[in-house]
Design a protein that fits this description.
Layout: E1 4-5, E2 10-11, H1 14-22, H2 24-32, H3 43-58, E3 69-80, E4 85-95, E5 100-106, H4 115-132, E6 138-143, E7 149-154, H5 157-176
Parallel strand pairs: 5-6
Antiparallel strand pairs: 1-2, 3-4, 4-5, 6-7
Helix pairs in contact: 1-2, 1-4, 2-5
């Protein structure tokens, strides 16, 4: 399990928040009851990890001039006690306007940017701001199956506040055992590993 738990605080990952955004009950079953979804058996997940590893090897100088990058850190593990989160950022870009931006590779074709991905990048932004004490007002996604198409995400204070509220709700579930409402989108239930045990 990715979650870190200490006596005085809980620390969670962006991937766990992605599970919450898929359905709050997903978090309850996986992270409170500790029932595995056998993610390693899913082809796309494993393939995505392999592509991610290759990208980390061959793209050390990728996009430096195009995005105005002065410097960058690759595959950076970060923790933020302030926001109760931790995770690994593919790349932290330090830009020529004295701000920073997270960059993440996605093994996918670009169609649109889903809200869950925006929140994932906001979590990275919060960690960067807390660790480096530098403003973060944007992030970048690289879609590897669309010829490394790059999409910018603008990040504002409203988005950061929303993510903080999601983190608080997540912690309520895993720390107190609160049984949340299911997702409003019933179509998600068909592809959920917990559909046979979920009370609907």
């Amino acid at each position: 399990m990715d979650r870190l738990q200490y006596k005085d605080y809980i620390s969670i990952t962006p991937s766990e928040i992605m599970g919450y955004l898929f359905c709050p009950r997903f978090v309850y079953y996986q992270n409170y009851l500790d029932i595995s979804e056998n993610e390693e058996k899913r082809y796309k997940v494993m393939k995505g990890r392999l592509i991610h590893e290759e990208k980390m090897k061959i793209n050390q100088k990728y996009l430096r001039s195009k995005l105005g990058v002065k410097d960058k850190v690759i595959d950076k593990k970060m923790y933020s006690k302030k926001f109760k989160i931790h995770g690994i950022v593919d790349e932290i870009l330090f830009l020529d306007d004295n701000t920073a931006a997270p960059l993440d590779y996605k093994y996918a074709k670009y169609k649109r940017i889903y809200q869950s991905l925006k929140y994932q990048m906001v979590m990275y932004a919060l960690m960067i701001e807390d660790n480096y004490k530098i403003p973060v007002n944007r992030a970048y996604l690289v879609y590897t199956r669309s010829k490394d198409y790059v999409k910018r995400i603008d990040i504002d204070n409203k988005m950061k506040a929303k993510v903080e509220s999601i983190i608080e709700e997540y912690i309520r579930i895993i720390d107190k055992g609160y049984y949340p409402k299911k997702t409003e989108y019933s179509k998600k239930c068909y592809d959920c590993a917990y559909r046979r045990i979920c009370i609907r």
